[in-house]
Design brief:
By secondary structure, this protein is an alpha+beta fold. It has 4 helices and 7 strands, in the order βαβαβαββαββ. The chain has a single domain, classed as CAP (Pathogenesis-related Protein p14a). A 5-stranded mixed β-sheet has the order 1-3-7-6-2, sandwiched between helices. Strands 4-5 form a two-stranded antiparallel ribbon. A hairpin with a 5-residue loop joins strand 6 and strand 7. Helix 1 packs parallel to helix 3. It comes from Amborella trichopoda. Probably involved in the defense reaction of plants against pathogens.
Length: 162
């Protein structure tokens, strides 16, 4: 089976716990949180703290998208990263890795993306962001949708993430 991922950027002041299975368990939380905190540590930024209320918001929004699995941002006051993957076999660690590997496109000296996108990465490492909550669902189509909500949000124009 060919799997394709489509990532949508967290832009401006926008930017989840898997609702299939028990991702509120330490394993589910850690799968979302640990790789993001590793990326933050690499650039000297304080770790994120898991926020259950943000995870509930992410879960609720992901469920709203269950029928169409669309990568449409919630337009809320939070930072938001979204992920869509073909099929249901996407591990949380693969989802976060898709965002974190965007580091290769970020030029810190020029504060620009040199490639398709790096705004998922910059939201993850945004220095003023302190809390995160995430959700992963399987849509009616059988595809995977994941959402992470960040507070305070990042990706402010003309500002550096760290």
């Amino acid at each position: 089976m060919v799997l394709m991922a489509l990532l949508v950027a967290a832009m401006g002041i926008h930017a989840g716990v898997a609702s299939n299975g028990n991702s509120t368990s330490p394993v589910g939380v850690g799968a979302f949180l640990d790789p993001q905190n590793t990326a933050r540590a690499e650039v000297g930024v304080a770790p994120l703290v898991w926020e259950p209320r943000l995870a509930e918001f992410a879960r609720g929004y992901a469920r709203q998208r269950r029928t169409d699995c669309a990568l449409m941002h919630s337009e809320g006051p939070l930072g938001e990263n979204m992920f869509w993957g073909s099929g249901r076999n996407w591990d949380i660690t693969d989802i976060v890795a898709a965002w974190v590997t965007q580091k290769q496109y970020y030029d810190h000296n020029l504060n620009v993306c040199n490639g398709p996108d790096c705004t998922h990465y910059t939201q993850i490492v945004w220095r003023n962001t302190e809390r995160v909550g995430c959700a992963k669902i399987i849509c009616d189509s059988g595809d995977t949708l994941a959402v992470c909500e960040y507070s305070p949000p990042g990706n402010y124009i003309n500002s550096r993430p760290y």
